[in-house]
TrEMBL record:
Keywords: Flavoprotein, FMN
Keyword Cytoplasm attached: no
One Pfam short name: Flavin_Reduct
Similarity remark: Belongs to the flavoredoxin family.
Gene3D superfamilies reported for this sequence: Electron Transport, Fmn-binding Protein, Chain A (2.30.110.10)
Source organism of this protein record: Flavobacterium kayseriense
Highest taxon above the source species: Bacteria
Domain Flavin reductase like, residue spans: 22-178
InterPro entries: Flavin_Rdtase-like_dom (IPR002563), Split_barrel_FMN-bd (IPR012349)
The protein's name: Flavin reductase family protein
SMART domains assigned to the protein according to its UniProt record, in alphabetical order: Flavin_Reduct
Length: 291
């Protein structure tokens, strides 16, 4: 067994040990607005429920390790004292990951991730329509745990209204743990699916993905693709060029056969095969070969 003095290693390495060993961690998909009402949406895995009476949720937007800057979510919570915590299940995990991309201030992560913002009843931040459970909250306290990169900021949130999708309830009106299909965060790229096991989600591109809003309507409206597929397609730096698509088609006989059928559903099913293998670039090439 190795023994480590936390002060003897870098913050990034320490964070890796902490996140790799303390888990699985639930995910708070936090929706906020800034002082001017502009929406922001970002996931946090330093999160849990800490009280039932009063109902208190706590999550922690940490200072960035690389430059000690703070996140828009924290700034917004300090300014408005309101937040909506949306629960993350498997159906929206890829879009949630895409929303964690550090887009510039003013960029709407609802639009970038392809999720639907719906008005809340008692607070200004929007709810995520696709989330199975949404907690409208008032921020009661923010506790800074340090001033250096990696330091957390505990945001204490009192739940003032809960919205639950009836589809996840059992015959007694309780939340069915199989139906809600929650996901959790572990170390690295690893996630846990509560009713199945471990799976990986590649981290969003540091160069910024194009976002779901850049995906053509004929793809977004296709019944073949779900939210997770759209999240993967949006996490690419740039769409392949016409030349790249042409070379791909010439080198893949099976693709030629699918394209020659001129059946859009079959073409989309072929692209989905690549998505299921996390080969997003090839999926895009299939889709763009026959627009």
């Amino acid at each position: 067994m190795i023994t480590i003095d936390p002060k003897s290693i870098t913050t990034a390495k320490l964070q890796g040990y902490l996140q790799g060993s303390v888990g699985p961690r639930p995910i708070a998909f936090a929706s906020t607005v800034d002082a001017d009402g502009n929406p922001n949406l970002s996931p946090f895995s330093f999160f849990n429920v800490f009280s039932a009476n009063p109902p208190i949720l706590v999550f922690s937007p940490s200072r960035r390790v690389r430059d000690n800057s703070i996140k828009h979510t924290l700034i917004n919570c300090e300014a408005t004292k309101e937040v909506v915590i949306n629960v993350v299940n498997y159906d929206l995990v890829q879009q949630t990951s895409l929303a964690s991309t550090e887009y510039a201030d003013g960029v709407n992560e609802f639009i970038k991730s392809g999720l639907t913002q719906v008005p809340s009843d008692l607070v200004k931040p929007f709810r995520v329509k696709e989330s199975p459970v949404q907690f409208e909250c008032k921020v009661t306290q923010i506790i800074a745990l340090g001033e250096e990169g990696g330091a957390g900021n505990l945001v204490l949130c009192e739940v003032v209204k809960i919205h639950i999708n009836e589809a996840i309830l059992d015959e007694n009106g309780a939340i069915d743990q199989y139906k809600i299909d929650l996901v959790s965060r572990l170390g690295g790229n690893w996630y846990g699916r509560s009713n199945q096991g471990l799976f990986e989600v590649p981290k969003p591109l540091t160069t910024l993905g194009v976002g779901v809003d850049a995906i053509p309507d004929f793809v977004k409206k296709s019944p073949v693709f779900n939210g997770n597929d759209l999240g993967k397609l949006g996490n690419i730096e740039a769409l392949p060029s016409t030349e790249e698509v042409s070379i791909f088609v010439k080198e893949n006989f099976s693709i030629k056969a699918v394209l020659s059928s001129d059946d859009q559903k079959n073409i989309h099913l072929e692209a989905k095969k690549y998505l299921d293998e996390n080969d997003v670039l090839s999926a895009w090439k299939v889709l763009l070969a026959k627009k």
